[in-house]
Amino acid sequence: MDTTLAYLRESLSNHLNHSIGEEIYKKLQANTNQNEMEFVRTLSEEETAFLNSVLEKEIRYAQDEQDQIRVTQLNEVYELLI
């Protein structure tokens, strides 16, 4: 699995209480050979909106924790969603 998508999957594990979050998580598990661009292309509009919201929060949290590697990895996906 792409390193960026591994960080995304870990972040999404905190949001499995939402059905959309669970759907996205399952897509990540099923498509382990994708890169982040290929993955983003598989998302519906609803999934993209949900992931956009989640990533904003997760990136802020990583910044607060001064985890620059996580910020960079999650930001790569976030930029593709915009």
**Rg for CA atoms:** 11 Å
Instruction: Please report the number of helical segments.
Output: 5
Along the chain, the helix and strand elements come as HHHHH
| Largest sheet geometry | none
- What assembly state would you assign to the polypeptide chains in this entry? single chain
Q: Which range does the strand content fall in?
A: under 5%
What is the terminal separation in angstroms? Answer: 23 Å
The number of distinct β-strands equals 0
What percent of the residues sit in helical stretches (DSSP H or I)?
A: over 70%
What's the average pLDDT?
Answer: 91
* Structural class designation: mainly alpha
Return the domain count: 1
How would you sum up the global shape? Answer: globular
Short description:
The protein is mainly α.
Structure characterization notes:
By secondary structure, the protein is mainly α. The chain has one domain (3-81). It is built from five helices and no strands. α1 (3-12) packs antiparallel against α2 and α2 crosses α4 (45-64). The model has no long low-confidence stretch (mean pLDDT 91).
